What we know:
The chain has helices spanning 20-30, 59-71, 79-87, 92-95; strands spanning 16-19, 37-40, 45-48, 51-54, 75-76, 98-99, 107-112, 119-124. By secondary structure, it is α/β, with parallel strands linked by helices. A two-stranded parallel ribbon has the order 1-2.
Amino acid sequence: MDHYQGLTKSFNHGKIYCSFVTARLVNMNLGISYDKLHILPLNQKIEIAGGTSHSCTIGKERLFLEVAHSLRKKVYVTAAKLRLLNCLEFTKEDMQWFISNEHESNIHVALCGRSQESNIHVSMKAI
């Protein structure tokens, strides 16, 4: 949410320029229709009315996947985080590493605080 904080469904100030992933998140979480969204390609500089934009992928979610792969263990995430991960176009094989039942995994992802810099805590619990 940090990269679309402040937006609401009633946004009416023109197009929102964003990545495909952010467009899906804004549509799913805020209900902003796709006709208000202008999707930009990832990892490419784009000239917009004299300025430059640079869209990039969401790194912290990929970190969760790397933890799962490295430890060969499934990772518990909240239902909201699982919906977000479904928007990120992970493969079906990658998505099988994430579960929303906290009792089925001893690796839990939790966001600590709501500052500009997201603090991520991955904890191991005995099951």
